[in-house]
Inverse folding.
């Protein structure tokens, strides 16, 4: 790889996480401000969840209930165990740094989510829902399941791309897939009536920012470029 290519790669490794962090913090801040001032999104929360409940189907409830499980702690624990097992089999003890970042990513996500919930103290939905929360089960904003699913998917993509070099197209597709999965889980929670729209958007913003930090700590490997040999 030439010096120019190396400089371009290093610049990309710095720029992409920075854009993710700024965009994520910006989105979260916009949603939080909208909630604080009872803006358009906040006023849409109850009508939207009511419409979702009115137009649900048994098949939809079954499908989206299953999708929402991707943000459940038990599912995340299983995914973490499988990811660590793959990491151990792939590179053994040399994977300790990636394993530490996985632990940091998941623990940090939980701490960030609970801290934000305590700061905003938004009550969980009580009407038009398929799940009744126990009293004292916590607050709603931002969605913990959305963050859990998104951060876990992001970590899986980051670990694989860090240890398995991939071209830029593959890395972009992986990022789009992670974002789509996060939003899909968020929609499932909205469909089930267990979170407001603002919870989902706020959770997506927090996820984007935190995965940006993890992307900076665990940059993707660059595929090696073998120079073409001149014909004799």
């Amino acid at each position: 790889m030439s010096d120019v290519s190396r400089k371009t790669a290093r610049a990309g490794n710095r720029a992409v996480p920075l854009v993710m962090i700024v965009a994520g913090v910006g989105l979260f801040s916009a949603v939080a401000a909208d909630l604080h001032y009872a803006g358009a999104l906040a006023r849409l929360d109850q009508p939207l969840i009511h419409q979702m409940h009115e137009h649900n189907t048994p098949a939809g409830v079954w499908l989206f209930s299953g999708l929402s499980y991707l943000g459940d702690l038990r599912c995340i624990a299983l995914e973490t165990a499988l990811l660590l097992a793959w990491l151990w089999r792939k590179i053994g003890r040399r994977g300790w740094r990636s394993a530490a970042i996985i632990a940091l990513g998941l623990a940090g996500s939980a701490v960030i989510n609970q801290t934000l919930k305590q700061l905003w103290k938004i009550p969980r939905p009580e009407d038009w829902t398929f799940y009744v929360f126990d009293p004292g089960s916590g607050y709603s904003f931002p969605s913990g399941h959305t963050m859990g699913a998104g951060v876990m998917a992001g970590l899986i993509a980051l670990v694989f791309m860090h240890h398995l070099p991939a071209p830029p197209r593959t890395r972009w597709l992986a990022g789009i897939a992670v974002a789509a999965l996060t939003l899909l889980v968020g929609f499932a929670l909205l469909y089930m009536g267990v979170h407001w729209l603002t919870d989902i958007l706020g959770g997506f913003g927090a996820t984007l920012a935190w995965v940006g930090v993890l992307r900076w700590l665990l940059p993707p490997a660059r595929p090696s470029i073998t120079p073409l040999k001149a014909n004799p």
Confidence is low (pLDDT under 50) at residues 1-5, 225-232. Residues 14-217 form one domain. The first helix runs from residue 3 to 36.
